[in-house]
Amino acid sequence: MEGWLLYLLLCWPLAQAGVVQDFNHVERCKDSLYMGTPPRGYLNRANKKICQRLQDRPRYVTLYDPNRRMPLYSAYTFKKSDGEKSVDQPWMYEPQLASSLGSSNMEPFSQFGNIQRLMDSQATLEDYADVVQYERGHLNPDQHQADPVDKAATFALTNIVPQFREFNIGPWAQHEERIRQRLNNYCRGTAYLVTGTTTAGNMIRRNNNNRVGIPEYMWTAYCCTDYDHNAPYLERYRFPAFGAYGLNDRVNNAVVEVPLKTLEKFLKDRMEVDKNFQIFYSDCVSDEM
User: Fold this and answer.
1) pTM score, whole prediction
2) In this predicted model, what pLDDT tens digit does every residue of 217-250 receive, in sequence order?
3) Signal peptide: which range, if any (predicted)?
């Protein structure tokens, strides 16, 4: 009996691959991260690590702030695509944020019974119902995926933050498309992306309660160590890694592209991270370079 109990304790983290203790196993989304290593330096131990799964397969990684009910970042591998956006996808939630006994797969909102437990643990569709100035902005965008199920998996509210409409459909959408084209054309191997948020404390409120954190800035970075060394210089110098950030606002919201270390320096002053904050393992420098 003791041996069986020990087996359950050892295997439980592998079986329950929704909310996880770490990402260091394939079933816990390790393959979504460069060298299997997540961004380091986040200080808040209450943040939840989510292996975003759909149809029993890991799709991407999210670090989630349950107090602000918002993702701090999503990390994923880029898939070459034509950039077509999905339509009529159902929005989904993460069952294991609401209950440790919940499914390890994201599920449509219509399938959850205890609405109060759901509301306590994460953002819901109702939080976005009466805030017309904001749109549901993806961190892992569906147009950076090719497989229909990978695209569908991006429609989880744990991968969504409130973005001003002018920013979401303007500079941010233009940057997502710019990165799609760059990686399509010049990244020969696997491209790893991390897209995240900073917050100044502003919240979406509902029924006089703070509900969902509103990002002050959006930021993103990619890592592709196997790239076309004959690419035009204006593209080539942005490899193997580069970053960008933009103010989530109606005006003055241009997305600025910067080297990876410049982005990290910018973020250290605006996030709950320590001095060792690092987006990619070894700054996306492979042993072969």
Assistant:
1) 0.92
2) 999 999 999 999 999 999 999 999 999 999 999 9
3) 1-17
Of the candidates 282, 197, 198, 200, the one whose C-alpha atom is nearest the C-alpha of residue 241 is: 282
pLDDT tens string 177-220: 999 999 999 999 999 999 999 998 899 999 999 999 999 999 99
Q: Pseudo-torsion of CA 161, 29, 261, 285, nearest 10°? A: -160
* Rounded Cα distance, 155 and 91, in Å: 5
d(CA 214, CA 184): 31
Pair of tokens at residue 283? 């700054």
pLDDT category, 73, cuts 50, 70, 90? very high
Residues 2-12 have pLDDT tens digits of: 444 443 344 44
Amino acid identity, position 67: N
- The DSSP-derived string for 133-170 is TEEEEESS-GGG--SHHHHHHT-BGGGEEEEEHHHIII
* Residue 75 · residue 194 · CB < 8 Å: yes
Distance CA 69, CA 231 (A): 41
**Partners of residue 160 on adjacent β-strands:** 138
Q: Any long-range contacts for 114-123 (C-beta under 8 Å, 24+ apart)?
A: 118/93, 121/66, 121/69, 121/97, 122/64, 122/66, 122/69, 122/93, 122/94, 122/97, 122/98, 122/157, 122/158, 123/69, 123/70, 123/157, 123/158, 123/160, 123/211, 123/212
Measure the CA–CA gap between 276 and 100, rounded to whole angstroms: 31
How far apart are the C-alpha atoms of 162 and 141, rounded to whole Å? 14
Residue with tokens 């948020």: 197
